[in-house]
Amino acid sequence: MKHTVVLIPCDSYESEQVCEKLKKGLELLGGLELLINKKEKVLLKLNLVRGASPERAVTTHPAVAAALARIFQEKGYPHVSAGDSSGFGSPVKIMEELGLKPVFKKYGVEMKEFKEAVPVDFPQGVHAKRFMLARDVLDAEALVSVCKMKTHALEHITGAVKNQYGCVQGFHKAKGHTLYSDPVSFARMLGDLNRLVKPRLYIMDGITAMEGNGPTSGDPVPMHLLLLSTDPVALDSVFCHLVHLDPQLVPTNVQGEQMGLGTWRPENIELLTEEGPMELSRALERYGNPDFRVKRSREKARGWMGAVGIFKIFRRKPRIRGELCRKCGVCVESCPVEGKALHFSNGRDKPPVYDYKKCIRCFCCQEMCPHRAIFVK
Fold it and tell me: pTM for the whole thing?
């Protein structure tokens, strides 16, 4: 059975164009009413990792969020909210900074803070049996995952599957990085999380994507695309193909398929466009970006005892560019390791210093740095 991914070209974030393109994408999936009952409480789970201007491509673009709010109102959905568990800062404040407050008020969308954590047992979990979810997620009956097309230091890319990590409430997100610190373990936890919260629909904002030092410190790059699917693994796999990245290098793709979340295999994916079905190879010719900057190699344990994994001498590490660091301390606050894996050695005259013996390579510091001063090497 083929898993459908809809690819819609979109040249800009002009509000009318984005709205019409999303409407077309939803029609190709069979219509919004087929996926969500109008009486259900709908939650738009945005990517609001931290505050940044829309041009930086850090968050779901406000034009995409606004268009979805408008579509749900026009379709007669009375109970719609939006939110995320941000990595740093208040999600409601981030939405306000993005200019979404008056738009959401106009279309009857309530902004959610994701403050309260609720323990949820998941005995069916393959890797993770319990999650601390935000109450706002549990109160919703239909989750719509609205992610951003970006690179990611730990998982190569962040997209449809990874977006659900924001359903875990704030403090517990950081703790999760210590429990699931390697890429495969983290991907398997994300697979279980997606199986638990079961989003009805996944939408990827790829009109402007982020390449390089993602998911917050990379560079915006135009891709001029919106992707929609009910299969997050297939959607992320199409993203990979479009940037000429082998989908098998992405742990969330491989582990997600093994856990029954979806498929990464191109022969099992049907790509639909406004012109009709399209071969993936043709889509790559028309919409692909072979120069997209993303890590394309598998991390290997090397060194004189690499075979037993004791000394991984050449492991990738977060590093600080001293000339860009403003000594704000966000990286130190973001470190989930007990006792912290980086600290200021002499006040704040110099950038923080890493203790790599403590560092678990979760790259939270790199993800949260607001000044693009941390990179992974």
Answer: 0.93
